[in-house]
Amino acid sequence: MMTSFQSVKIFYLAVTLATALAGCQNKPLPFHGADIKGAPYGQAWVLIDQTGHTRQAKDFKGHIQLVYFGFTQCPDICPATLQRMQAALDLISPEVQAKHTVDIVFITVDPETDTVSTLSEYLKPFGSHIIGLTGTQAEVDAAAKDFKVYVQQSSKTPKMFEHSGFVYVMDTQGRARLLYAPETSAKDIAEDIHNLIAEGGA
Q1: pTM of the full predicted structure?
Q2: Alpha-carbon span 2 to 117, nearest angstrom
């Protein structure tokens, strides 16, 4: 039986292959990220934000979201990805941000450690647009499943987690539209958000 991790690897390889084939055919790609329009990701989660309020997927209708799963004890990749997403928001023009709310949504994979108060303190340096989400283990597991995110606690290091590091862009209708590898540049993400809005997809 195929594991969740194997499924994620196969999906990512398929995205990479599709991008390479498009490049070989000299056809320009409309986005830097993989276009996942039609994928049923992120439609049914219910979690608690860093202020203690219940939040769910439908609350973000009308907003563009950059969604990332991680954990506060992550030493490098998670904070670097959050910084990159915040840098992307800084590159989006004030005129665009005045008309379109863009949120960074950070969903923990370690709710036992990442309580409401822990998330609140951890996320302060990342700016006012970031929303941290936690919940019970079952609620977090359901959210990860909703986004097809692989999560596995490390067998070698306590409180460390292996997890897929994709960043998802959700449009104003709550639909999954784009998928990024964690090292995608802030400039590319900002350009994609501008292009998504320009095409009417946001």
Answers
A1: 0.82
A2: 37
